[in-house]
């Protein structure tokens, strides 16, 4: 029997490869650098499934180059790289990887929050520099985290995982979201709802956990920074374009806010040069990058592909209307 052909734009992890190879004829882009777009389009000609990263734009151009495509499986929960409507129009299933990365991403948002508050980046650089002269009373003094107010923007699974961790720091947790959480969730997480204006004014740390949508693009602009406390820090592990980077740089330069810790950027992999400053911690989009979680994400994408080939509903389908046709 001829096995369905799959293209993965990355070599993936062994457990995911095993899932695929049992049932499919899988081709991987094995090189460490990203595949050139033309190469992806060329290889897709005879493929029925694509497993891709969030760096691949799944749009009309790609779909046109892949006339046999049945499913595109994103190895990420965020799917702003996928034109879902275009997929639906062509009867192509689109899937993502929700749920498996929530705790790992929240861990990392906390890593960033702690690092910027306690000036870990600067401390690490000094300790390695050979210039450290020893303990000093006012050396690299930062800001306390414990007992402060954490403002969470976007109270989905990751936002809630962020809130859960705050109780150990005896923090007050406030959140904002388009949809207010159920009373039980608010109680369990000891989180209080605020509208955006109140959250900006009250928070010592603001952590962003919204998806990138037309309504959230540029959500953090000059007006928002104006409303934040001068002593407050911004943490972003969601998507870069949720924050207007130029406005953030201006806010940092004019000391409208105290600092920022960022895992995501407006035009990745480019980073606004104005963010290269002492009160900013930078990371290269690695919030979900633990071996356990990235392996689970790759396996989930592979399982979504297998389900589609077996005529089952993929667990993480984004456009279920395709199945009704
Ligand atoms: C996602 O899954 O959307 C992240 O940005 C990568 O883990």
UniProtKB/TrEMBL annotation:
The keyword Plastid does not apply. Residues 111-287 form the D-isomer specific 2-hydroxyacid dehydrogenase NAD-binding domain. Keywords: NAD, Oxidoreductase. One of its GO terms (molecular function) is glyoxylate reductase (NADPH) activity. Residues 6-319 form the D-isomer specific 2-hydroxyacid dehydrogenase catalytic domain. GO terms for cellular component: cytosol. InterPro entries: D-isomer_2-hydroxyacid_DH, D-isomer_2_OHA_DH_cat_dom, D-isomer_DH_CS, D-isomer_DH_CS1, D-isomer_DH_NAD-bd, NAD(P)-bd_dom_sf. The keyword Oxidoreductase applies. PROSITE patterns: D_2_HYDROXYACID_DH_1, D_2_HYDROXYACID_DH_2, D_2_HYDROXYACID_DH_3. It holds the Pfam family 2-Hacid_dh_C. Belongs to the D-isomer specific 2-hydroxyacid dehydrogenase family. This is D-glycerate dehydrogenase.
């Amino acid at each position: 029997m001829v096995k369905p052909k799959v293209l993965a734009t990355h070599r993936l992890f062994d457990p995911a490869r095993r899932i695929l190879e049992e049932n499919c004829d899988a081709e991987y882009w094995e090189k460490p650098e990203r595949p050139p777009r033309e190469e992806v389009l060329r290889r897709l000609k005879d493929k029925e499934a694509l497993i891709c990263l969030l760096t691949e734009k799944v749009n009309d151009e790609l779909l046109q180059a892949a006339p046999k495509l049945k499913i595109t499986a994103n190895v990420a929960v965020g799917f702003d790289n996928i034109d879902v409507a275009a997929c639906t129009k062509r009867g192509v299933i689109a899937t993502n990887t929700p749920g498996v990365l929530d705790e790992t991403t929240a861990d990392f948002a906390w890593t960033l929050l702690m690092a910027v508050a306690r000036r870990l980046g600067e401390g690490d650089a000094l300790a390695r520099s050979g210039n450290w002269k020893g303990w000093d009373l006012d050396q690299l003094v930062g800001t306390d985290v414990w007992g402060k107010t954490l403002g969470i923007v976007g109270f989905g699974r990751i936002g809630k995982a962020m809130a859960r961790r705050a109780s150990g720091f005896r923090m007050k947790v406030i959140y904002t979201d388009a949809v207010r959480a159920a009373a039980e969730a608010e109680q369990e997480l000891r989180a209080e709802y605020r509208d955006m204006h109140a959250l900006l004014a009250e928070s010592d740390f603001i952590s962003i956990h919204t998806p990138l949508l037309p309504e959230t693009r540029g959500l953090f602009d000059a007006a928002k920074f104006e409303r934040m406390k001068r002593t407050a820090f911004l943490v972003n592990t969601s998507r870069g374009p949720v924050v207007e980077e130029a406005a953030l740089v201006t806010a940092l330069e004019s000391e409208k806010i105290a600092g920022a810790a960022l895992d995501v950027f407006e035009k990745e992999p480019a980073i606004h040069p104005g963010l290269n400053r002492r009160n900013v911690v930078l990371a290269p989009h690695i919030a979900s990058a633990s071996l356990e979680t990235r392996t689970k994400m790759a396996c989930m994408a592979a399982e979504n592909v297998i389900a589609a080939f077996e005529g089952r509903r993929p667990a993480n389908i984004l456009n279920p209307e395709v199945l009704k046709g």
